[in-house]
Amino acid sequence: MYQPGLKGITAVETELSFIDGEKGILKYRGLPIETIVKGHSFEEAAFFLLHGDFPTEEERRTFETDLKKYRYIPGHTKQIINQLPYSLPMMDVLRTAVSSLVDTETNDDLAVRMIAVIPTIIAYRNRKNSGKNEIQPTDGLNHVENFLYMLNGTLDLTQSKLLETYMILTMEHGLNASTFASRVTVSTQSDMVSAITSALGTMKGPLHGGAPSGVIELLNEIKSEDKICEIIHMKLKNKERIMGFGHRVYKTADPRAETLKDIILRLDNLPDWMNLALKTESETIDILKQYKPNQNLYTNVEYYAAAIMKSLEIDSELFTAIFSSSRIVGWCAHAIEQANNNTIFRPKAKYIGN
């Protein structure tokens, strides 16, 4: 049966993640995402997705060492970045830079290299465009700490933990558009670099990778708690979408959003921005029930991701790129899984012409 956009069509079998949208469940390789976030680092979660088991102590040290070794941008890639127009959006820069990486290693090694270097590319380009000096990677910090340090020149461990939680939660999420693009590319027996370039090109599209920026615009428009009802009612009457609410898969609470919210509520002295986000969520859900009584609409992961990014004072242009710096783990894991049991994707097209 024809389904626009392949909606509801099963295209692959995977061991990487399980999603139950009706019950609000997300698992990586059989483990609830909440368990992974509470008990493991970014490095351990990435190793788990790539290899199927959490690392031994020796494997963890080797994996962390490799990530640190590959943090540095190759010279030819840095030259390409320097030649790109100042006005080019970050996702275009990231796509172009990644496409220049040389495919001379096994898929496992390439995965580690791309996971490691993408944060450096983002930080390097951002500081260059801001007129700031480049900050080199440092071996004394873990993956997420080093990312924040390269971006800001300073490090706050609470902020780092927030970002690490977000990046673990968004590593993998089934056969979304960018992941599908990476698997389609690999299915032709193309290389891993091409697969990730395909995924980045897909992520650039606003229907897939633009949600956090939309949430920022919404909260910027609201500005204060006394304006929430007025703005939300106005948008719903105008049949505008409320950014950050609802999800194509989850029909109940998004477990990633719930986990992020739980972390946020444990913090002391929440900034005004975060309090506004919390208040907007509760009031908007009540209002949505009036307009759409037969739908259960909850915040999705990008709602609280936007609140976290804003509290970290990260430029909204970087949101999708930072999302990509975590989702690349899933892209690589899917590309490896596809290569290990490959059939080229070749769906049919339904002719509707004369």
Strands, helices and their partners?
Elements: E1 17-20, E2 25-28, E3 31-32, H1 33-39, H2 42-51, H3 57-69, H4 75-83, H5 90-99, H6 107-129, H7 143-152, H8 157-169, H9 177-187, H10 192-203, H11 206-209, H12 211-222, H13 228-237, H14 255-265, H15 272-291, H16 301-311, H17 319-340
Antiparallel strand pairs: 1-2, 2-3
Structure commentary:
- The structure is a single chain.
- By secondary structure, the chain is mainly α.
- 59% of the residues lie in helices and 3% in strands.
- It has helices at residues 33-39, 42-51, 57-69, 75-83, 90-99, 107-129, 143-152, 157-169, 177-187, 192-203, 206-209, 211-222, 228-237, 255-265, 272-291, 301-311, 319-340, and strands spanning 17-20, 25-28, 31-32.
- The chain has a 3-stranded antiparallel beta sheet.
- A hairpin with a 2-residue loop joins β2 (25-28) and β3.
- α5 (90-99) runs antiparallel to α6, α9 (177-187) packs antiparallel against α10 and α12 packs across α16.
- It is globular and about 55 Å long.
- The model has no long low-confidence stretch (mean pLDDT 91).
Features of the shown structure:
354 residues; mainly alpha; three-stranded antiparallel sheet; 17 helices; 3 strands; 3% strand
Straight-line distance between termini:
21 Å
Unreliably modeled segments: none
Q: Would you report the number of β strands?
A: 3
Structural class: mainly alpha
Mean pLDDT: 91
- Main sheet overview: 3 strands, antiparallel
* H/I helix tally: 17
Q: Topology as H/E string?
A: EEEHHHHHHHHHHHHHHHHH
In helices, the fraction of residues equals 55-70%
Give, in spatial order, the strands making up the sheet with the most strands: 1-2-3
Q: Overall 3D geometry?
A: globular
Give the DSSP E fraction (strand runs of 2 or more residues): under 5%
C-alpha-based Rg, rounded: 20 Å
- Looking at how many chains there are and whether they match, the oligomeric state comes to single chain
